[in-house]
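Write out this protein's structure.
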Amino acid sequence: MKLTDTLFLSIKNLWRRKLRTFLTVMGVMIGCCAIVIMLSLGIAMERNFMTQVKQMGNIMQIQVYNYNYGGKTPDGKDIPPLDDKMIAQFETIKGVEGATPVIYLNVKMMADKYVSYANILGIRADMFKLLDIPVIKGRPLQEGDTNQMVVGQYVAQNFYNPKASRYRWEPAPEGFDLMEEKVTISWDMNYGEKPQPGVPQPKVKAKPVKVEAVGVIGQSGSEYDWSIIMPFDTVKQYQVEMEKWNKQNGNSSGGGGIYGRGYVSVAVMGGSGNSNDKGYERVIVKCDDIDEVVNVMDKIKEFGYECYSPIQILDDMKQQSAGLRQILLGIGIMSFVIAAIGIANTMYMSIYERTREIGIIKVIGARLKDIKRLFMLEAWWIGVFGGILGVALSYLLSYLLNKFNVNLGNSVIWTPEGEVRLKSSYIPIWLSAAALTFAPIASLVAGLMPSRRAMKLSVIKALRQD
């Protein structure tokens, strides 16, 4: 018997029992839909977790802190300084794409007639792009930059007119663009403003430094939004100049602050600090693969340093939701198992009703494999139609879940632009393809035993069947 003849005959046999075939197909449809929807809820949950974690910072960045300097590692060794030598060692760890020390400075900035207190963050220029800092205007930092800076999109909002009435706050006008202004910075926190009565003035004036804004950072949900990023070596030189100026004024001039400085010893506002051999206070390590982040953190912790990455929160979220995802998947699988039992029951009933027909087919010369193939194809068609209808129903239910905001995985986040609702259900293309492949295969497995029974029927007993 030709394959095409078997295909048409199998469809014809299913059509003879329309209601039973329809109910069996509906069972496969519901089982397939249950698996797809349950998986889509789990996938959407993980996507939502990932989106929420990304709001907290780049998930492939590790913040390394030198809090434990002077202590011991877990195996009893001295914790080494977090210096350039150690950073170079970090960069040799598998999965590390690059690393940079970080320096923070607090200065006074002036543009046109407006002034502001500004936070400068110093990183290595060659690491700027690796840190995935979004630049929406201008360009990022480049190697060779010195007094160039990239400003967070909210930095301009802090500028104000110091000559306005003391009873009225006059911020910089809307659209104030630092890239179009001549900008200077100073360690003197009184820079650009009239001296306050009774406030001691510095003996040595701080010479303003001309800087150039070359880019603007877009929304990142991190410290970059409110900070000014400059080349590490430049900010380190500013740090030296600031400390020198503070010392010249007896450390009581109201000068700028090294409040989160590159070295472990921290100078408070107006105080001094000297660079020593304790290394940097903070280093950012960028990984090249999300799967390597945890391994890299473990390696760094072996040196005795404290580490943090948003991926830790993601792992906690996944662990908390793992039980729910397993329950959802279990419900889907159970639904399909019931559907498979329905297929097997339908095929057995079909064989029982067509016992005489099977005997006649054998008498006229049908091969055993033709009989087996006929019933296997009937089961296969049930899986094909059930899978197609199940995937279609899954997309419909997924649309309704998202439309009516059925929330099973904390699908609401808040951004500066307002509340954003994430999808409660997400069906990727691969899941649809897997369902369309799995349903016919599972149906073939369900029809295997009935088809073998039909193949083994005795011809004499089959012909005697009424």
